[in-house]
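Lecture notes, part 5. Sequence design as translation. It can be helpful to think of inverse folding as translation between two languages: the language of shapes and the language of residues. The source text, in structure tokens, appears below.
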């Protein structure tokens, strides 16, 4: 079934289907390299800035207390570039490196996801329900060079860090500081 997207009269589902059909029929070429952050988000930001696309939020998050975070395409692009710089410069990550993020679905989860896409870093999401054994397995199996978590989940993460032979950096999302961790919000 098709539905309109943000009040736009064009049908998003039919556009996606027709795009992929045209690729399958050889009418469109698949790009050799595709990066969602630069090829889609940045393009939408440019279209909005030029007035060729109506302004809509790229990201809109609301928690149980009614707090909300709303970013335009331009804001999400800018923040994701900054976050990609944090990952590559402060954390020392390179294209192809792996990151395990054990976070609830807070705005930083999505921001880091887009930043990883932008930088070519592989993002492994983990939920707050993971046990220390689960976290340890993911770190070893993925050969992650960085782990990202918050203050609530840090004790479970810290309990398995001594056995993580590939880990080079630890990124903390939250207020304050934690020994041996980089603070994402301060670096951003």
């Amino acid at each position: 079934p098709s539905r309109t997207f943000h009040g736009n009269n064009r049908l998003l589902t039919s556009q996606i289907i027709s795009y992929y059909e045209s690729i399958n029929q050889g009418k469109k070429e698949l790009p050799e390299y595709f990066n969602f952050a630069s090829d889609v988000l940045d393009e939408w930001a440019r279209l909005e800035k030029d007035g060729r696309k109506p302004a809509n939020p790229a990201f809109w998050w609301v928690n149980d207390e009614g707090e909300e975070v709303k970013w335009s395409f331009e804001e999400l692009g800018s923040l994701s570039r900054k976050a990609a710089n944090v990952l590559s410069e402060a954390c020392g990550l390179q294209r192809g490196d792996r990151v395990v993020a054990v976070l609830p679905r807070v705005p930083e989860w999505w921001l880091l996801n887009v930043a990883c896409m932008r930088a070519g870093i592989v993002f492994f999401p983990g939920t707050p329900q993971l046990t220390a054994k689960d976290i340890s397995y993911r770190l070893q199996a993925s050969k992650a060079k960085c782990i990202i978590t918050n203050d609530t989940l840090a004790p479970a993460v810290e309990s398995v860090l001594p056995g993580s032979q590939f880990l080079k950096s630890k990124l903390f999302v939250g207020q304050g500081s934690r020994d041996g961790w980089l603070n994402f919000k301060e670096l951003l």
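The translated text above is only one of many valid answers, since several sequences can fold into similar shapes. The domain at 36-183 is CATH 3.40.50.980 (Rossmann fold).
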